[in-house]
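pinging the channel bc i need a second pair of eyes. not urgent but kinda urgent?? the chain im working w is below, pasted from the shared doc
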Amino acid sequence: MILYHNIMEKLSIIIPAYNEEKTLAEIVKKVKEVDLSPLKKEIIIVDNNSTDNTLKIAKSIPEVRVFVEKEKGKGAAVKRGLNVATGDFMLIQDADLEYNPRDIPKLLKKVTSEKTAVYGSRNLGPERKGGLLARLGVWFLTKEFNLLFNTDITDLWTCYKLFPKEAIIHFPNGGFESEISFSSLLIKNGFDISEVPISYNSPRTKKEGKKIRYRHGIQSIFLLLKEKFKKVN
């Protein structure tokens, strides 16, 4: 059995944050509490031009690296964090409390090589909450992805993704649809995608921050076909 700490020495945890003053300090505290020894842990907060006290709170937290990304969108904030990260592997951690850092060791234990990416699947975990139509849409698109790319992924749009630094070049700046591009590029470039069950708190409303709409589903159908037949650079 290959142990993850024989493959990596440091894990960079990227926390993109936009108007997360209510939860940022708590999520960083939870990340710090997770024991990953002997692995080194690097925490990077990227403020995406918040209009509340998110940046001020981030700068007050010890032992974290803080950056500001002025280009709007979570994808741009994540990309900035990835570009300044110094770890061997990367993990994206949302600044809210939807994804539990206690699940990080589960993802790490699935790493078997430097070409392994691990997704935390909400669909393999406890029963998740959320709108039925939204869940059916994600299920359909995930099934289509699996058929096109010969995979067996259950949660393509999970935000909990662990991947080697080498994969950063494949990470796009986009939003909802970028999850398709990233996963397809990983597969086309020889990475293996594994999954582990994770816990997941009830999602926020659109007003509170979730901006996923039905038009994203329609766009994703066409993007899946485009990515399937796109040539690898």
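so The CA atoms of residues 56 and 107 lie 31 Å apart. and The domain at 4-229 is CATH 3.90.550.10 (Spore Coat Polysaccharide Biosynthesis Protein SpsA; Chain A). — does that match what u expected or am i reading it wrong
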